[in-house]
Amino acid sequence: xxxxxxxxxxxxxxxxxxxxxxxxxxxxxxxxxxxxxxxxxxxxxxxxxxxxxxxxxxxxxxxxxxxxxxxxxxxxxxxxxxxxxxxxxxxxxxxxxxxxxxxxxxxxxxxxxxxxxxxxxxxxxxxxxxxxxxxxxxxxxxxxxxxxxxxxx
Length: 153
Ligand code: RB5
Fold this sequence. Notes:
By secondary structure, the chain is of the alpha/beta class.
């Protein structure tokens, strides 16, 4: 699987750890930054990663900031993205099987490195269940991408 990963300054060390975790599990990882702990703006990194996933260039995305919240709010603005901020492996698994989430967002100030590794492993290993009700609900989520866009003139 091709996974894109990005973090703001708060998530730099956890990003390094998770690149190792994903690489060791045999995934191809593209690191979109940031590369230093100098203060930066998480939406810039969220959108860069979300565009790669939405275009199909990457299969999944991992985004890290202090809480995971800013990254998820930002990534979910990109059409085609279903980004889930999670703090435990069960939620990561359900975000895949029920919501077909394509990006997982983590808070480096919320979860430790071992839990974060379990979350990411669960996220990339779990398929969408494909059950009729989940397909219908995810379809309704994706219809919102278009439904709420102002008419173009
Ligand atoms: C940066 O201090 C922090 O606000 C950011 O990493 C993130 O937690 C925002 O949601």
